[in-house]
Amino acid sequence: MKSSHSCSIALFVSTLLASGALAEEGTILFERVASGLANGVSDDGRVVVGETLTQGFVWTLDGMTEIGGLAAIAANGDGSRITGDVATFGDESAGRYTPGLGWSSFGGLGQFGCDSSLSSAYDISSDGSRCVGLGWSGCSAGAFLWTQADGISALPQLGPNSSRADTISGDGTVIGGWDEASNGSRRAAIWIENPIFGTWSEVLVLLGTPGNASGYGEVNGSNGDGSILVGSADGSTEATSGAFVIRDTDEFELLGLLPTQQFPVSGGALDVTEDGSMVVGFQREGFGGAQTFEATIWTESTGYVGLKSYLNERGAGIPESFTLAAAQSISDDGRVICGWGYEELFFFQEAWVVVLPSEEPACTADLNGDAVVDGADLSLLLTAWQTSSAEADIDQDGIVSGSDLTLLLNAWGACSS
Fold first, then answer.
1. What average pLDDT does the chain have?
2. Pick from 132, 267, 272, 284: CA 20 to 30 A from residue 259's CA?
3. Closest Cα partner for 352 from 373, 335, 337?
4. How far apart are CA 281 and CA 270, in angstroms?
């Protein structure tokens, strides 16, 4: 994908989101993107990334663009950096994609991987400088951190077997995932960076939670500073298993499971909004080809419910025949959700994206905050012309320019109450 095309897409999407075009219509956008999986949403909701049957893709309101590689897994804050998996010289490795530059490969944790697999990507920090995932040294697997300066390196591990890093906080200081116990069960884990020495320490975050003395489960998602963690708990009973939220490192809340129709059942939370007000995930029931899936959502007002029902009650119009199987990711503000689904058989996966309208359209062109877009705001914008002033950059594309002027003029007058 050429960088000029990327800029035009970002401008188009930011113009729609910033101007509240979707909010004015008051409708939910639901789109089945392509055969494959939609894996990640950028923090600002402008970009969704995923994989078709053959390569990675980027989706915006302007459409879908294939970007090569094997899969795009997660996007950074504004979608300008993407982590995913790429094939190089017969091996498969985690890597990073930059528009205009293409893919780079991280390699593995050792001189050799396990067969052709060197590493797999799972998440990226908001500034795009840190990526995490699972790396191989021979056929021993471990959680990794990749940085531009140091490349790929193994995270410390408490257990004797494998580990994996599934998520990294926006600021890159907290990593979540799992660490395998001696009996082979995964234990929910986080790694916290020492701000002085840059070293990492591991903590098993579900130890001693109700019905889960050994802390079995996974940490799958986090917010910007790692103060909110979400994942799946694997307790001793169905009543002590399912999605969970941890707030401020010690406030544990079990969201649980949806009412079950068949066994076995498993499920969990995969991502969370910046303020923790919305949590998305999945539930899986049954064996083999008879398995069923359902995407889930939690809000304080609704509790833990099926996402499809939640959306259709709000007018999304998702067809009865299409199953939302898993909600993989959600934007910081909760407006954009992506995942995968299917019709009839879950083997035939389809990537999907949902864009929710704003509850209260923002008056972003009111630069001086007086609830009116007028000459005073125009003066502020012109004073900041061709700079990167965040206050005057209405569309948040990094430069105060004609697109911001257009948004300001279109919003001229009193802000909507």
1. 92
2. 272
3. 337
4. 5
Note whether 80 and 32 are within 8 A (CB). Answer: no
Query: What are the tens digits of pLDDT across the range 224-237?
Result: 999 999 999 999 99
Locate the domains of the chain by residue range.
3-355, 372-414
pLDDT at 21: 40
Strand order in the sheet with 102-105: 71-75, 82-88, 91-98, 102-105
Based on its alpha-carbon atoms, the radius of gyration of the chain, rounded to whole angstroms, reads 22
Q: Given pLDDT bands bounded at 50, 70 and 90, which one contains residue 250?
A: confident
CB 154 within 8 A of CB 140: no
CATH 2.120.10.30, domain 3-355, yes or no: yes
Tell me, yes or no, if the pTM score tops 0.85: no
Exposure of 394 in the CB half-sphere (CA atoms within 13 A): 32
Residue 194, helix vs strand vs coil: coil
53-71 residue pLDDT tens: 999 999 999 999 999 999 9
Tokens of 396: 């948040």
Residues 6+ apart with CB under 8 A from 164: 122, 133, 134, 141, 142, 143, 177, 178
Tokens at 17, concatenated: 């989101």
